[in-house]
Amino acid sequence: MYRSLSVRHKHIVWAWAFLAIPVAFYVVIRFYPTANAMLISFQDWNLLGDRTWTGWKNYEKLWSDPVFWKVFRNTFVYLLIGTPVSLVVAFAIAYHLDKLRFMHGFLRMLYFLPFMTSAVAMAWVWRWFYQPVPIGLINNFLSTLGIPQVEFLRSTTLALPSILAPAVWAGLGFQVIIFMAGLRAIPGSYYEAARIDGVSAWTILWEITIPLLKPTIVFIVVFSSIGFLRIFDHVFNMTTGDPGGPLNSTKPLVLMIYQTAFTDYSMGYAAAQTVVLFLILLIVSLVQLRILRDR
Amino acid sequence: MAVADTEFRAASETLLAPRAPRRKANAGQIARWLLLFAGGILMVAPIAYMISTSLKWPHEIYDLALIPDEPHLENYVYVLEDGRFYGWFINSIIIATITTVSNVIFDSLVGYTLCKFRFPGRYIVFIAILSTLMIPTEMLVIPWYLMSQSLGWLDSYWGIMFPGLMTAFGTFLMKQFFETVPDDFIEAARIDGLNELQIWWTVAMPLVRPALAALAIFVFLGNWTAFIWPLIVTNSVEMYTLPVGLSSFGDEADVQWELIMTGAAISTIPTLVVFLIFQRFIIRGVVMAGLKG
Q1: Mean pLDDT in residue range A262-285
Q2: Rounded to two decimals, what is the model's pTM?
């Protein structure tokens, strides 16, 4: 049979033989669950009882749930603080590191090391830093300077940025490396020409470096935005015992999904929340790509 | 040297060797160096304090000093004698290793097929896999949980591993790298009488070895630190992975911060050691994945 096939047909047979298991995997583990999540979002189901169709009820419930709006706001606060702060800090570090030779590799290693840590482990380390006197490192340090202690994780206003800090910290090294690769990709002749024309370093930065870095900036903005919109590990581990912080002040959407599904077992309601998360990620990515590409 | 290797070196070697011209140290450069050095120290301070505290006695943890008065390993002995951390460590090793092997094989097989074969359905498969990049894991955890529940996969290695056995990211990374393998090589192997499976494994795969290594590092690190899905799918303490175990241990150990720091150190030190050994390589991999992926 096989021997009588033409070369072209043999290739088709091989290609599909190679793809058989992966295609089955993507269908069963990715596409079917995606469809199923959307389906469940229109049902009422607590795992034990029957699955009943409820139409748009889960979405209506979400729309009128004050906790959801609080969580929605928090999720965007993580994004709107986290992304710009890490972008600017990572660029500043990469820009200056690029101009240094002395112990260059060592400095780069210091900045990159946090990227290799586990979010759960470092969430607990930062949680310890934030403890009140006499345990927490930061408050102990502040008290030696005579500064009154700060209620980092127990404050409704400071808890969110306190949780965001280790998330920004852990991702910084990755962004620095990507920025440095972007900086190196700019042809040296552009800088030579600017130098001959006697252009100032500031003008070079704004007229040459940043415009030519646009693809790198787009990549980092989209990539880190998706990360901040999906923040979970840090929040969960820094607020166990009171997940989501005082008055839900730190709760992001993914934590709300986790609690709705696996603490309350309201599968339909949780599925509706995941569909909303999906739409948020999709819209934010598309809007960013549009804005940043056109400029 | 491999084809992909040379291209990849060209892209990343420039990154590893500083471009800045060698200049006489002036005040500006010294200030810049000192500032970056101070920033770098701040970056590693949390890791340093974690390790330092894991070597301290309970009464010392309030101390700001980085070097313990009398460093000791009692915390490690205590945490490991308990047995749970040891089990979680083994679980994490097994799960991250199997997932990595699976991704290296299947992601490259799919990437290779999409890159080097022309067949009906190629474009649809390509777009279909690409589209899964848009679906967040969090949307799938509920269906995965229901699936695991009805198939008896809850609380098992397979249950923890199955969602990550292949990734669209890895597939596209590999597809990009197989583009650098000339079709002539594959054609020559066909004339030599190798079958397509042999060509993929013995001709194409060795040529993209750096990309495979980068993929392996990413998948391993990703699974080593994965939290939300293992948290959902495991029930019994014995099945926890390190992050899930550490999370429950932290809750339970409450204020015994030196023990929590020891657990955190146990789950962090292996990846840090791997990084310090393969540093140049990993940084190249990050650049490669970032630029190509």
Answers
A1: 94
A2: 0.91
